[in-house]
Amino acid sequence: MDKPAPDYDLVLAGGGLANGLLAWRLRSLRRGLRILLLESEEHIGGNHTWSFHDSDLTPKQRDWIAPLVASRWPRYEVAFPDLARSLDGGYASIASSDFARVIEAALGPALLTRARIESLTPTTVRLADGATIHAGAVIDGRGMRPSSRLSLGYQTFLGQELRLRAPHGLAAPVIMDATVEQQGGYRFVYLLPFGPDRVLVEDTHYVDSASWQPERLRANIAGYAAARGWQVDAVLREEQGSLPIVLAGDFDGFWADLQGQPSSGLRAGLFHPTTGYSLPHAVRLADHVANLHDLSAPSLFAALREEARREWQGQRFFRLLNRMLFLAGRPEQRWRVMQRFYRLPAPLIARFYAGHPWLRDKARLLSGKPPVPVAQALVAACKIHPDQIRKTA
Ligand SMILES: Cc1cc2nc3c(=O)[nH]c(=O)nc-3n(C[C@H](O)[C@H](O)[C@H](O)COP(=O)(O)OP(=O)(O)OC[C@H]3O[C@@H](n4cnc5c(N)ncnc54)[C@H](O)[C@@H]3O)c2cc1C
Question: How high is the pLDDT of residue 393?
Fold first, then answer.
């Protein structure tokens, strides 16, 4: 039987960060393409604050995402028990409400919200209302899917945007305040000053399990604000997450499990292995796909897999560091690894976050007096974890 003619050239399943940026980029660069972005919620983008370092992106990439950026700072700070440092370098944040406002307006009829996807294949989407949509290709961007092919630690966090009774006095974002009590993992507080009396306070934990207790994190935030002498007038908004930190994985197995399904974002493993952040990867992916000539499902799958392989190979060193961070030393001593990292030269730190450390940087990161015991660090670096992962590259 003949296949029905596709309704669209490309259907983007899930209106999150990766597919939202991709749809927006295609809309502006490939106007002739018939695309449809599907999202189950009322608006795309969920409830997030997405931040990035300027050095994570090229000037051209920063230009095209500029309409989404709500806040921008010329430098940021970190604080540890024995180190307080201010680093030059742009830091910016996108609020998901702005993401939705700008991209939804640009997409118009190419967006369908409140559309819950029941199932999909590389060329079809079946919605919960029973409708089936046919496409030249479907890109699955519905967020992280559980996989036995990755061995993970987690960055779990809860953030509250607070309005204070008086100015907080912060001059720049504090991306790690690790002077706080450690609670069984690497704990730090992340601060984004959105206005003189408005601040996002995130209580963050690098821990071995994705399970967490929101009430404890809320209490931590209240305790932190009180300790800084901040009186909270109102909690304006709350966001939370549990981001994957990759210790090891089987790339070929992970992609074989996708069975030819083109995928994007966390679902395609496209995120920074040490931070769980994916904005720079999503920006790069949008540019990459917008420049592809052949958007048929098999060709798109091959191109996305190749892009993911390139990223994966470049991330080997980060997975090694993650194993040292998670598997060596006592959990409450993990902050020492990060404190040592933040003593290094600023350009090295920028290349680390951008995911492109030089060979020299890697040697520097691994040399010197280690903050965790040497023997344990070596065992951790070589550990195959867990059993079902065949390759630990
Ligand atoms: C609170 C929070 C803050 C973060 N902050 C940062 C940051 O500062 N910087 C950074 O780079 N990264 C950050 N991240 C990490 C990562 O970049 C985000 O998780 C990012 O949103 C992942 O993008 P994605 O496109 O893969 O998935 P998502 O953005 O999660 O998008 C998935 C979308 O698919 C939709 N969906 C799911 N199932 C269905 C279905 N059956 N039918 C239809 N739609 C469906 C969802 O509603 C959602 O909109 C943060 C994550 C969280 C949770």
Answer: 41
